[in-house]
Design a protein that fits this description.
Number of helices: 0
Shape: globular
Oligomer: single chain
Number of strands: 6
Helix content: under 10%
């Protein structure tokens, strides 16, 4: 995916971006693997963890992180918010 893209999607679409979300999230790794990096003070790497099939991670709102697909994968991300409209940070 990183080298060739997928069905016309540019490879840049698959590059991990450092970001935070405006909602608490639960991430469930269905298949494949994802490398999660969590940052301290928006720049210094705090830790990283490799999620495999069946793993789950809770990401509190405002936590700066990035996610990299290590291979083709399926996953789900569930946002939790008191706001009736979910927005991207």
């Amino acid at each position: 995916i990183r080298d060739n893209g997928v069905d016309g999607w540019p490879t840049e679409s698959w590059s991990p971006t450092v970001h935070s979300d405006a909602q608490d999230r639960l991430f469930i790794q269905g298949s494949g693997e994802s490398l999660w990096r969590v940052f301290h003070d928006n720049q210094e790497l705090n830790y990283e963890v490799l999620l495999s099939e069946g793993d789950a991670a809770y990401i509190p709102k405002g936590v700066t992180h990035s996610v990299e697909s290590m291979c083709p994968r399926h996953s789900a991300s569930i946002a939790f918010s008191d706001d009736p409209e979910i927005i991207k940070a």
